[in-house]
Design goal:
By secondary structure, this protein is α/β, with parallel strands linked by helices. It has 2 domains: 171 residues, 3-Layer(aba) Sandwich (Rossmann fold); 188 residues, Up-down Bundle (Dehydroquinate synthase-like, alpha domain), CATH 1.20.1090. It is built from 13 helices and 11 strands. The strands form 4 sheets. Strands 4-3-5-6 form a 4-stranded parallel beta sheet, with helices on both faces. β5, α4 and β6 form a beta-alpha-beta unit. It is globular, with a radius of gyration of 20 Å.
């Protein structure tokens, strides 16, 4: 299709396309093959609705019965109460098993709408219409859905793959600078875990991303989505390889929970978490000091935090990390770096090494 770059998440009969390009939210031809029933509920939030809801409705209304639900905006609303709001709407509207939920917004909207779709009538279709860079390169792809709990981020959820992802890069023009930078953190992650050449490209183009250069953004989104699609196809339910996508996330989720949801953006917390992972990797003798410095410098150029919040202590981190989803019977596992472009999921560190890394970082903060 003209002006559209299409990738596919290969999952057999549950495979689905990721369309990347400009002006795609209004393209009825992209929705038509992937929406099976008549009823569509577009779930969005108070920030996104005035900008893009009407465009999506216009694209869908020719062939579907379209309703909408506007949620409050913010990570602090990614909870059971908001989830029930979606269920209330679906039941009041008498939506049936062939309905589709359309998640129009960032990662919070995508995660909670996907989880509602996974649960309603034991599972209905949904599509992802991500409007933030972070959602376009990461959370909209792969079928992880869920909500937060006061004791841990994303601890309640389900794997439920979307039928379609439309990444309309025009939506990034209305994204504020802080949210854009938060998305760049996840883009950098892909270079760190699997693609050293992409990391080098980011070192040359990070300012272009922050300046919203269309070609640079399209390339970064395509490479990120291609990497994630390949990993999800290889390991859909995170039995092994997919866990590498969580580089920095165990530390980052502790920051988000410890500081109160919404005070640190997800990408900001992941950025600080990736530096902690890099420093622990260096302590283990894997990543060299020059590699750590390259990571810190790139994140700083991306206007992202590289130190954890000084308000938190070592025990805060350790207690919150103990409830991370990657904890197994034998204890905490972390994604660390052998080198830039090669990540591993490992338990090959001692409590003392982890504590020393956190202590040094928090002292510097």
């Amino acid at each position: 299709m003209a002006g559209v770059k299409t990738l596919t998440v290969e999952l057999g009969e549950r495979s689905y396309p990721i369309h990347i390009g400009r002006g795609l939210l209004e393209r009825a031809d992209l929705y038509r093959p992937r929406i099976r029933g008549r009823q569509v509920l577009v779930v969005t939030n108070t920030t996104v609705a005035p900008l893009y809801l009407e465009r999506v409705r216009n694209a869908l209304e020719a062939e579907h019965e379209v309703e909408s639900l506007v949620l409050p905006d913010g990570e602090e609303y990614k909870n059971l109460e908001t989830l029930e709001t979606i269920f209330d709407a679906l039941l009041e509207l008498r939506f049936n098993r062939r309905c589709t939920l359309a998640a129009l917004g960032g990662g919070v909207v995508g995660d909670i709408t996907g989880f509602a779709a996974a649960c309603f009538l034991r599972g209905v279709d949904f599509v992802q219409l991500p409007t933030t860079l972070l959602a376009q390169v990461d959370s909209s792809v792969g079928g992880k859905t869920g909500i937060n709990h006061p004791r841990g981020k994303n601890m309640i959820g389900a794997f439920h793959q979307p039928r379609l992802v439309i990444a309309d890069t025009d939506t990034l023009n209305t994204l504020d600078d802080r949210q854009l930078a938060a998305g760049v953190a996840e883009v950098i992650k892909y270079g760190l875990i699997r693609d050293a050449a992409f990391f080098e490209w980011l070192e040359d183009h990070v300012e272009a991303l922050l300046a919203r250069d269309p070609e640079a953004l399209a390339h970064a989104i395509e490479v990120s989505c291609r990497t994630k699609a390949a990993i999800v196809a290889e390991d859909e339910r995170e039995a092994g390889t997919r866990a590498l996508l969580n580089l920095g996330h165990t530390f980052g989720h502790a920051i988000e929970t410890g500081m109160g949801y919404g005070n640190w953006l997800h990408g900001e917390a992941v950025a600080a978490g990736m530096v902690l992972a890099a420093r622990l990797s260096e302590r283990l003798g894997w990543l060299d000091a020059a590699g750590v410095e390259r990571i810190v410098r790139l994140l700083q150029r991306a206007r992202l935090p590289t130190e954890p919040p000084g308000e938190m202590g070592v025990e805060d981190f350790l207690s919150l990390m103990a409830v991370d989803k990657k904890v197994v019977d034998s204890g905490l596992r972390l994604v660390l770096l052998r080198r830039i472009g090669e990540a591993v999921l490992t338990q090959d560190f001692t409590p003392e090494q982890l504590t020393a890394t956190l202590s040094e970082a928090l002292a510097a903060a």
